[in-house]
Amino acid sequence: MKCIVCNRACDKKGYCRFHKKALQNIVKSYPSWKKALGLSWEEYLNEISENSITGEWAKEVVKHLIKSGEK
Amino acid sequence: MGKHTLIITEKPDAAHRIASALTEKGKIKEMEDNGVPYYICRRDREIVVVPALGHLYTIAEERKGRNHYPAFNFRWVPKHSAERRISKARRWIETISKLADGADTFIDACDYDIEGSVIGYCILRFACSNKENISKRMRYSTLTKDELELSYNNLLPQLDFALIEAGIARHEVDWLYGVNLSRALTIAAKNWSGKYATLSTGRVQGPTLMYIVTKERIIRSFVPKPYWKINVRIQLRHSVFEAEYKKKIERKGEAAAVASACKEEEGKVRTIDVREFQQKPPAPFNLGTLQSEAYSLFGYTPNRTSRIAQRLYLEALISYPRTSSQKLPIEINYERILNKLKDFSKYRKLAEELLSKSELKPREGKKIDPAHPAIYPTGNKPETDLRSSEEKVLDLVARRFMAVFSESAIKQSMRVHIDINGHCFYLRGRRILKEGWLTLYKPYVRSEEILLPPIKEGQIVKIKKVILEDNFTKPPPRYNPASLLRKMEETGIGTKATRANVIKTLYDRKYIREEKIVVSDLGFEVLEVLEKYCPSVVSIELTSELEERMNKIQAKKEDKEGVLVDTVKMLKPIMEELKKKEKIVGEQLSIAIRKAKLEERIVGSCRVCGTGKLMILYSRKTRKRFIGCTNYFEGKCETSFPLPQKGSIKPLRKNCNRCGWPTVQVQRRGKRPWTLCFNPNCPLKDERRKNR
Questions:
Q1: Do B563 and B169 form a contact (C-beta atoms < 8 A)?
Q2: pTM
Q3: Residue among A26, A36, A56 whose CB faces B220 most closely
């Protein structure tokens, strides 16, 4: 099975180890953004997808999350 | 004609200096044989000084060809027989052999370190017909006349065989790793794609790439978190200073509330904390710290600094630079060097001040090197015009040398607690109370003073402005060549002589790019293959362990054969595994190579559509090259620009400093490269037109 984002081998959730780590970081950072700005999950994803500091892999996962509407 | 003494040096410049220093009777004779220079001088007897050209011998596989692995059988051979475009080596070896025939005394005067010892040993053994056991050794750290004469008069009775053994072991182990792993990668990719591309890795290269990739992974999966900083501008007498809120704030609402509470308010000075501290002089330079300082001050890569330092050494202006030592032994004669530095007008005052001290005692670092002291200036004046880069490094070494003899600087830091409407802000100041060593190292000191006017507790200050700053947490900074070199040093991988070259190889192989190092897709894939199929090859622990074992050979606590046998034992199953998985490894690497080649053609982001990338493309009809947007293929953007058709074009990955568009470098053969901004409306173009 291949990663949803790239061509690497992946786990059951569909992410390779690198995109899985990026997903973990996305999930882990959400409480900080919620506390800071009171953002919803969707708003948060949009914010970090436009932030220039967000890493390339994290942005790829965000793009996929926005597209799939996954919560 | 009687027999002569043959002295072998590592480089031609060193040979000339040694001959000039040792001659007692008349001028030296500058000779040439088959394009190889050598020098004859007379002292107690006739001395012939002949240079090598670095390594004249290398390791080669017993079996011919490069399209197979594993390769565990090797021997030492003349360099020209193993490598292409090294025809000079043949002439050099022939001349040295000829001169050795007429000699009865042999002296190895190559640099006194691992590489120099191996160079001298191989020449004495192979080119001079086994003279390694009767050869004497010259040991010196500068190419000054005094030291060379002293070294000649106090020759070491034999070569340093432990150092040679360690050097040979290092070469052989590195060869086993490098040849086997690099061949496995290259052959796998070639067999899968049918196209040849050089891929390499090695004992030190793999773990170094590992460091960079580990950081790149953190950066690529990084998600920032927001926080806010509040600064207030405060009027103190006639100047404005900035004080910062006591902490970072993690909620926008809270930050806005604090900022609004401080608007149009006055502040009151609650407390003033004053702290005095000493800043000791820095330690003298070793190669690593010199490379690091030259990078941060002048932007020179470690490799460039190493080359500059080597040239300064060969000009007898500084001591031997490939040293780990941070010690300056008393034998180098501090006073004599300072007296010589006094002859330079820019150092006169500083040197005089140091010489007036009752005792000259350097501040030293912890690191030691049994072969050489820390880097110091000889105090000699340059005999030829130096390049500006050489002048800068020489000045840096000279000032650092003087600074280590000076006193500590005394600094004062001040933290003023200002209360604004119940909120605590800190105003910080710092000043130098006593300059000490900073006077000597002044041009290179990077700390700015913030001088606060006299201020009292209870004083009321006026707030001019409140600044609320949006901020985000940042990923760890990328490595640059200097910080990567420091990391290698800290973890003990590679040697002082090889680290800078390993970094250069990673750039040459296109595994990494840019000054703030970014890993390419190819770099990622190579490391992934290594991590997956041979994790021990990129293991930092195992590499440091092996490094330690090789150091033990030098200390005569381990033997070379044991290390080599263990290396082969470790590599054998790895090579078998790689052979089994050759197809899958080849596919992975070939895709990465293709991507890397595409990556090389990307010049930057498209400023018209904002989402595509501008790329160097070739017209199918005319085969002419041009810049086009990658979104063209999806029918979204038709941006394109013409390119010059002659010469080579390289994306600079830097934007034009006038219009912000990406730029490329164009270079025609025999001409200087020039930067091209392909924005037709760039204001720079108009200005140039007008200037014409």
A1: yes
A2: 0.85
A3: A56
Residue B37 backbone phi and psi in degrees, to 5: -80, 145
* Residue A54 contacts B where some CB pair is shorter than 8 Å: yes
Whether the bond between B70 and the residue before it is cis, its omega within 30 degrees of 0, is: yes
Asked if B219's CB is within 8 angstroms of A55's CB, the reply is yes
CA distances from B551 to B204, B207, B478, B595 (A): 15, 19, 31, 40
What is the ipTM score, two decimals?
Answer: 0.97
Q: Which residues pair with B106 in a beta bridge?
A: B6
pLDDT tens-digit readout, B563-619: 999 999 999 999 999 999 999 989 988 988 888 888 888 888 888 888 888 899 988
Judged by DSSP in three states, B544 sits in: helix
All residues of chain A having their beta carbon less than 8 Å from the beta carbon of residue B223 are 22, 25-26, 28-29, 48, 54-55, 58
Taking the Cβ of residue B476 and every Cβ of chain A, the question of whether any pair is shorter than 8 Å is answered with: no
Q: For chain A, which residues make up each domain, given as ranges?
A: 18-68
- Find which of B219, B222, B223 to mutate to test the A interface (most A CBs within 10 Å of its CB): B223
Contact list in B for residue A21 (CB cut-off 8 A) is 217, 221
Q: Are B673 and B666 in contact (CB under 8 A)?
A: yes
**Look-up of token digits 């040679």:** B164
- N residues, chain B: 692
Query: Catalytic residue numbers of B?
Result: 320
Q: What is the pLDDT of residues B398-422, one digit of tens each?
A: 999 999 999 999 999 999 999 999 9
